[in-house]
Amino acid sequence: MARLLKPAGARQHARRERQLIASNVADLHGDAARDRNTIRKTSSLTEKGEMINGFGDMPNQHDMLTGSDSDGRAFTDGLDHTCNNWTSDAATARAMLGHHDRNGNGNVSWNSAHMSRDCTAAGLVATGGAGKFYCFAIN
User: Fold this and answer.
1) Which residues span the domain enclosing 84?
2) How many domains is the chain built from?
């Protein structure tokens, strides 16, 4: 789980160690055309401060559960993009994933790269992840 914290009273988004990740929400959700954040493999750490394997590492664990489009918003197409609101581990459910290392198959989006195969633990691993998610909190 990448732990990104937003300092109290500020609009900037910072990592656990207070490294600036984005100056505002628009920059936080930027993609290739709006790339104004520092979300990369080296800045996406576990709650213990450990680096998460990325594209090219074994095992690849760069897929992060987001459920959102590249603007950080919920999808409006009526389909499930969140493993039934993060309550399902079914082979029939799917979730939108992002790449914490901004790498893989030409898609550099940290929050909306591709759908999971399904919502089972094995399905998330097979897609290139480990069931990890981003955690944003207000200090």
Assistant:
1) 2-138
2) 1
